[in-house]
Amino acid sequence: MPELPEVETVKNGLAGALTGAVIKEVILRRGGLRSPFPDDFAEKLMGAKINNIERRAKYILFYLENGKVLIAHLGMTGRFSVLPNVPQEFATHDHVVFILSDGRCVIYNDARRFGVMGLCNKSEVLSHKLLAHLAPEPLEENFTAEYLVGVLKKKSSPIKPAIMEQKIVVGVGNIYASEALFMAGISPLAPANSPSVTKKMPLLIKSIRKVLNDAIAAGGSTLRDFAHVSGESGYFQHQFHVYGRKGSPCTKCGTPINAIKQAGRATFYCTKCQK
């Protein structure tokens, strides 16, 4: 599933291509994705100018001049493509088509249909059911060591699944949690509220931000389905220190990277650097 850097990369591509564009027509090629499209979804978008595009967690928010906000989530295989014109034929999984007033075409393709598209008024964004429960962004100022120590002080479960909880911090997915813990020298097995983790919390915050910013700069990580709006792949997977490197030598000490399962997800770490 695309994580924060991948969604940020898609958002940046869409913002660069679509800010100021006007949606002339919307074609819905099915009744919904993970859930049905809102009532009068296409009608409320047609004729609207896209003022700006932002990201909240893994959601992409299209702010429209008519006061509406289109909320989109890519799910596991969702992909936006911006084309110079409307194709003569659509692909099997091209589910939503936005035709712009300048003749360009934006297609949302989603083979597994785990994506989401919703619509609300601008004044309702923060309270919308998809967004209201979300925790602080890891790249914003309010995500601090003091905040993280506070929310984890009663949490004795391992630190890795803890920092992947969307109610604690958004967007730190499986790949980047493994990489950040390696950079901070913290074992993914350490209790989240243990003194050893608390002591290193400022370094963990710094490591999370660094790995996410590095991944954004590299255009995200392409493991299977992810691609930019342009169709290109991300390249951060070539910078992995631990993720997906079971048995390979640690980039710091040479110890073979270990792999375990935590909360149903694969965890990679160095048993020497992350005691």
Explain what this protein looks like in three dimensions.
This protein has 275 residues and is α+β, with helices and mostly antiparallel strands. It folds into 2 domains: 4-124, Alpha-Beta Barrel (N-terminal domain of MutM-like DNA repair proteins), CATH 3.20.190.10; 145-269, Helicase, Ruva Protein, domain 3. It has 7 helices and 10 strands. The chain has helices at 4-18, 41-45, 145-152, 159-163, 174-184, 195-199, 201-217; strands at 23-28, 50-56, 59-64, 68-73, 78-83, 94-100, 105-110, 116-121, 258-262, 265-269. It has a 4-stranded antiparallel beta sheet. A hairpin with a 4-residue loop joins strand 6 (94-100) and strand 7 (105-110). Helix 1 (4-18) crosses helix 7 (201-217), helix 3 (145-152) packs across helix 7 and helix 5 (174-184) packs across helix 7 (201-217). The longest helix has 17 residues, at 201-217. Residues 222-228 and 233-238 have low confidence and may be disordered.
What is the strand arrangement across the widest sheet? 1-6-7-5
**Span from first to last CA?**
29 Å
Q: Class of the largest domain, according to the CATH hierarchy? A: Mainly Alpha
- Using only C-alpha atoms, the radius of gyration works out to 20 Å
State the low-pLDDT regions, or none. 222-228, 233-238
Total number of strands: 10
The description of the largest β-sheet is:
4 strands, antiparallel
CATH topology of the largest domain: Helicase, Ruva Protein, domain 3
**Rough outline:** elongated
Helix/strand-derived category reads alpha+beta
- Summed up, the domain count is 2
